[in-house]
Design brief:
321 residues; 9 helices; alpha+beta; 8-stranded mixed sheet; Recoverin, domain 1; Restriction Endonuclease
């Protein structure tokens, strides 16, 4: 029996509610992260401007190969779309930019070029921002789990999201949560592997957090991987990192639907893994429903991502399952 329970950090529905101060802090964190992610685009724009200023007239830009991709961006061609264009298509797009927008701008054609470059890059940034809150939430929970393991003196291995390689714990683990797809540790001598954003066959949907009773080498990219055996699952959870109160109820409804789908799929198969929820924006009506689910056993644990005591408690719970 896990000594850690939801009652360690929740004594009623009100203890789940996100405070105004936490909401404000969350919006500030999002703004700072948006600025951090925008920095490469700003630097590209500076480089583009300095290089483009060497051109005497807009048509000269066609001969500057070092900014060819930037010209395509300014023409409204995304990186993804550019992969489907041949050289003739690319030149035609750039000529369209020059004829329709840069030539009419006269001596200000370089500024016009930079503005249009940033406009397209802004769309790219906007697309990545839709998942930003979720990424920040995932990072915060990951750092909490890493801290809990470190404080208990437990070793771990983590899965790099891009290289798909498991990496052993090192003395300097700063920022590893930025690229972490999974985590492995031992609980009472038994392997525990936590994986993020995993397609679960029995559920037929992606699940945000999956904890397995397996060594990390049981997770691979074939049909023999651990997620294909329902008995391997110890816990499954949904994570909603959005901080905006206006969208909180909708996020919760989506999470409830996903959690019910998870529980029903496993129950039909005769399995009963732990089911939990972690969210950043929790309003009163949601909190009351969550607390009822906890008391009735529909949910095994819930935590508010903006409350440090909640993160400590649920992370201790997770690493001791």
């Amino acid at each position: 029996m896990n000594a850690y329970q939801y009652t360690d950090h929740i004594d009623g529905a009100k203890s789940l509610i996100t405070s105004h101060e936490a909401t404000r802090a969350g919006f500030i964190s999002l703004a700072l992260e948006k600025n951090r992610k925008a920095t490469p685009f700003i630097e590209e724009a500076k480089f583009l401007k300095i290089t483009a200023l060497k051109a005497n007239k807009p048509s000269d830009l066609l001969g500057v190969n070092s900014i060819r991709n930037s010209l395509l961006t300014a023409a409204g061609i995304s990186d993804k779309a550019a992969k489907h264009l041949n050289e003739t298509d690319r030149i035609e797009a750039i000529k369209g930019l020059i004829d329709n927008f840069l030539e009419p701008a006269g001596t200000n054609f370089v500024d016009e070029l930079v503005f249009r470059f940033l406009l397209t890059r802004g769309d790219t940034l906007g697309g990545s921002m839709r998942n930003l809150a979720g990424s920040l939430g995932e990072r915060k929970l990951s750092r909490g789990i890493l801290s809990a393991l470190t404080l208990e003196g437990r070793n771990y291995e983590w899965l790099h999201s891009k290289s798909r390689k498991w990496i052993e714990q090192s003395p300097d683990d700063s920022d590893i949560e930025l690229n972490m797809k999974g985590l492995h540790w031992l609980t009472d001598g038994r392997s525990r592997t936590l994986l993020y954003n995993l397609n679960v066959p029995i559920v037929k949907k992606n699940v945000d957090l999956c904890l397995f009773d397996n060594n990390y080498n049981m997770y691979n990219y074939s049909s023999s991987s651990c997620q294909y055996c329902p008995e391997n699952f110890l816990a499954l959870g949904e994570l909603k990192g959005g901080i905006d109160p206006a969208g909180a109820d909708e996020h919760w409804k989506t999470a409830v639907s996903a959690l019910n789908r998870i529980r029903n799929a496993f129950t039909k198969g005769g399995f009963s893994p732990y089911i939990f929820f972690v969210g950043a924006a929790i309003e009163l009506s949601m909190a009351e429903e969550m607390y009822q689910y906890l008391q009735s056993g529909i949910l095994d644990n819930v935590a508010n991502l903006t409350k440090e005591e909640h993160i400590v408690s649920i992370c201790n719970w997770l690493i001791n399952i």
